[in-house]
Design a protein that fits this description.
Length: 157
């Protein structure tokens, strides 16, 4: 998995007692693959992305058109401040069983206007700090044929 950003090792720390993973990304790191690498290193397969800050550039966000079930995507090359990042981490309920983050972000541009939506990809600009709460429950993502979306499937109690 390529993170970009040079030869720096991925920086992360997990407070196992509290179940919180902190990840620090460097300028040029490929945001999503870097988070996936951190999750893999600590064996995190289910979680809640509770906070993210820093700056992103070359990012793609989307808004889901519920009539067509297709994301209307926008790509932004200029650096933007990451105001808010939230989401979930679950494992796909298919043959691949891959860890899949679902993230939404709000970002402010140089003119202070805010854009946001589903975060598809991004590159760290200067730095990012992301905090993830580990969940013991095995969260899964299943394809809903009616919407075409990999939806969160909660465990049965």
């Amino acid at each position: 998995m390529s993170r970009g950003g040079g030869d720096r090792p991925l920086e992360h720390f997990e407070d196992r007692g509290r179940g919180v993973l902190a990840v620090r990304l460097h300028d040029g790191d490929d945001f999503v693959p870097s988070l996936l690498e951190a999750f893999d290193k600590v064996g995190l397969r289910s979680g809640a992305i509770v906070s993210g800050l820093g700056m992103l550039r070359d990012f793609e966000i989307g808004w889901l058109d519920t009539r067509t079930h297709v994301y209307r995507k926008g790509t932004f090359t200029l650096p933007h401040e990451l105001l808010s990042l939230s989401g979930s981490v679950a494992v796909t309920d298919d043959a691949e069983a891959r860890v899949m983050p679902h993230m939404h972000a709000s970002l402010a541009g140089p003119d202070h206007s805010v854009v946001g939506g589903h975060l598809f990809k991004a590159t760290t600009n200067v730095l990012n700090e992301v905090f993830v709460l580990r969940l013991d429950a095995p969260l899964r993502r299943r394809l809903n044929p009616a919407t075409g979306i990999m939806e969160l499937a909660l465990p049965k109690m």
